[in-house]
């Protein structure tokens, strides 16, 4: 996500010069208000021109140049949009004033006008401007956000002419296969930028963010403004929503995306309810890593230690007490707090689960009726 200051005359001069240079080269990105003209034959046809490309249509492209990457970009590129929100601050008189704009990316995935993006791209906004791939800007409404997964859904007016991307299967990804990132790094001046790399790793965890599921790692360049854009396979399927990037000096080629299989359920809940309702157990727990981080000795094999139980929670209705170890849910074992949460995330409020726990060295089981998570715990 990229923020630009409106009051900077110098910045405007640089942008104007850059736009002129891009026009001379043969086509710049940018948005305007006007009618949408869909690619020929509906969807993304070979006549589609990515922002920043030449206006000349290349026919009979030699096979050596008409690669899988080229075809994938033609397939998904039209469905990548720019999302702009207003940024506000308080002046010396405590009045709310607009100080700039925040720009990110999004992926059109439904002809009803639904767009998936990152929560931090639209955070605090109810309405946004959406810049389509043809340059048209339309009004968008934020229909739902989920800070826990950094996902959000925006809606614009639907149309059969809207180009949409197809979701793939992120569980079928292989380390080393081609990865294509499409988005708007550093703002709409670079709309529709394509970078190519490989799937570097799967099931990555980052220590400095509270993620609810594993991430896809890629070396395809992902810069500020790419947030909410698509990570695409060589067959033109969206397998990830670009989100986190390690932005540390000397660190390059490490971008991360939310797996689309993990995102699908979240996206549907945001469309249906405007929020995500999660199953709630009501336990504050620690695992071996957490214990060692705070200097406590860990002398237990597997499970998590119950530190505190929330009042009037499902767990408070059982015989489990602080000091006990929860070792399994429905027979599925775990040895980290995240592992336990992953299993709970596979359930919904109203589900009954069986907890296996240890009390004073004795192994026991109990049944729990899951509730809906309070707003503060989602």
Shape: globular
Low-pLDDT segments, ≥5 res: 1-29, 33-48
The radius of gyration is 24 Å
The count of β-strands is 21
End-to-end distance: 24 Å
Q: What is the overall pLDDT average?
A: 81
Structural class: alpha+beta
Helix share of residues? 10-25%
Residue share in β-strands: 25-35%
Q: Biggest β-sheet, characterized?
A: 6 strands, antiparallel, barrel
Kindly report the spatial arrangement of strands forming the biggest sheet.
2-3-4-7-6-5
Helix count? 6
Descriptive report:
The chain has 378 residues and is an alpha+beta fold. The protein is 16% helix and 34% strand. The protein is built from six helices and 21 strands. It has helices spanning 9-25, 68-76, 119-122, 260-273, 288-293, 337-345; strands at 2-5, 80-90, 96-110, 114-117, 127-131, 137-146, 151-155, 178-183, 193-204, 215-218, 230-232, 238-245, 255-259, 279-280, 283-286, 304-309, 325-329, 332-333, 352-359, 362-369, 371-372. A six-stranded antiparallel barrel has the order 2-3-4-7-6-5. A six-stranded antiparallel barrel has the order 8-9-10-13-12-11. Strands 15, 16, 17, 18, 19 and 20 form a six-stranded antiparallel sheet that branches. A hairpin with a 2-residue loop joins strand 17 (325-329) and strand 18. It starts with a strand and ends in a 6-residue tail after the last strand.
């Amino acid at each position: 996500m990229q923020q630009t200051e409106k009051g900077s005359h110098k910045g405007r001069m640089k942008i104007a010069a850059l736009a002129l240079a891009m026009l001379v080269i043969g086509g710049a990105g940018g948005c305007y208000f006007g009618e949408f003209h869909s690619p020929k034959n509906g969807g993304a046809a070979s006549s589609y021109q990515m922002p920043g490309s030449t206006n000349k249509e290349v026919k009979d492209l030699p096979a050596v140049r008409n690669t899988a990457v080229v075809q994938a970009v033609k397939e998904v590129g039209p469905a990548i949009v720019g999302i702009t929100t207003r940024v506000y601050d308080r002046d010396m008189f405590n009045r709310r004033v607009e100080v700039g704009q925040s720009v990110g990316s999004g992926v059109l995935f439904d002809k009803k006008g639904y767009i998936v993006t990152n929560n931090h791209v639209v955070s605090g906004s109810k309405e946004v401007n959406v810049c389509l791939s043809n340059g048209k800007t339309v009004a968008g409404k934020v229909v739902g956000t989920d800070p826990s997964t950094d996902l959000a859904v925006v809606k614009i007016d639907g149309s059969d002419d809207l180009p949409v991307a197809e979701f793939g299967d992120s569980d079928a990804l292989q380390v080393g296969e081609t990865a294509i990132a499409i988005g708007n790094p550093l703002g709409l001046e670079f709309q529709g930028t394509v970078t190519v790399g490989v799937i570097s790793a799967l099931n990555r965890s980052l220590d400095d963010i509270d993620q609810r599921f594993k991430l896809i790692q890629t070396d395809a360049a992902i810069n500020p403004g790419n947030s909410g854009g698509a990570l695409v396979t060589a067959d033109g399927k969206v397998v990830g929503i670009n989100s986190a990037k390690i932005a540390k000096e000397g660190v390059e080629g490490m971008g991360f995306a939310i797996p689309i299989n993990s995102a699908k359920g979240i996206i549907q809940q945001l469309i249906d309810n405007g929020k995500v309702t999660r199953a709630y157990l009501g336990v504050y727990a620690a695992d071996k890593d957490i214990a060692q981080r705070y200097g406590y000795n860990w002398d237990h094999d597997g499970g998590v230690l119950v530190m505190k139980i929330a009042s009037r929670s499902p767990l408070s209705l059982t015989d489990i007490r602080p000091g006990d170890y929860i070792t399994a849910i429905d027979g599925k074992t775990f040895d980290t707090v995240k592992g336990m949460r992953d299993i709970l995330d596979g359930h919904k409020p109203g589900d009954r689960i069986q907890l296996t726990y240890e009390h004073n060295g004795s192994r026991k089981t109990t049944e729990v009726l899951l509730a809906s998570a309070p707003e503060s715990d989602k």
